[in-house]
């Protein structure tokens, strides 16, 4: 295929409104129609080891044609990962023990997807939460990958390297400030790998900070705001820390955010509040809503804008209205 040459500025809010599609490697015509109707300009897709890389070509070609930015998430699903149980105190999660093998997978993947228009790479997913890496492990992974992209192996010097989306779910922490996420980030910034990288290059090993501030908005019985802790949550978990280390010029992307309220009206209302709140934060320059369709009938499917059976939820039209309203300002 013909090479697609693109360069995306992480601060450019033209690409603010994003979406995570049903599948990463194939998007149906009906989903593309909704993406266009909504005015989506950014997609977060996942490099998964169960698919041939060529499976992604049609999606990437269509995205380039529609002037839609594509961010590629690489994680435990991108290679043959190995994990062991890890107890965080509230139950066992997954601790991945061969995360550095992702580097070899990226060495092969970057030239292929660079040619097809991928402009940014999110390195791992919720590494402080269910898909756990210790801070020193993630520091080694991220600093190694950044060096190879920009300084040593020159994989793609213009690529945007995105911090793995931080699990920042509010489980009734004060003002949405997830104390576990905050503590994990503080340890990360003090790791030997992070300190060494900053001393050598004068900046952190990422171009964009990413976070997943789930459950930071709630409504009362009248569908009025009971609490909206999005801004204070982001400030307390990452922004204060970044400012302290001189990273205040680095933008923030919300690479996952959704709501699984079974009531369509409440779900749509919370989507509206999330989008408007984040759009009014100048440092936030992307929002990827989770998700177009989430499979399953165990409650997780309620994150969907369009249910797996094809039922369109009120949140789809609400997202369109909010995008139109904010773009008209």
Concise description?
With 329 residues, this protein is an alpha/beta fold.
Poorly predicted runs of 5 or more residues: none
Task: Count structural domains.
Answer: 1
Strand content: 15-25%
Rg estimate, integer Å? 19 Å
What does this structure look like?
The chain is of the alpha/beta class. The chain is built from nine helices and 13 strands. Helix 1 (29-38) links the parallel strand 1 and strand 2. It is globular. The termini are far apart.
Features:
35% helix, 8-stranded parallel barrel, 3-stranded mixed beta sheet, TIM Barrel, alpha/beta, 329 residues, 9 helices
Outline the fold blueprint:
Layout: E1 17-19, H1 29-38, E2 42-46, H2 57-65, E3 69-74, E4 83-87, E5 92-96, H3 102-114, E6 120-125, E7 131-132, H4 135-150, E8 160-167, H5 179-189, H6 192-201, E9 209-212, E10 217-219, E11 225-228, H7 230-244, E12 252-257, H8 264-279, E13 284-289, H9 314-327
Parallel strand pairs: 1-2, 1-13, 2-3, 3-6, 5-7, 6-8, 8-9, 9-12, 12-13
Antiparallel strand pairs: 4-5, 10-11
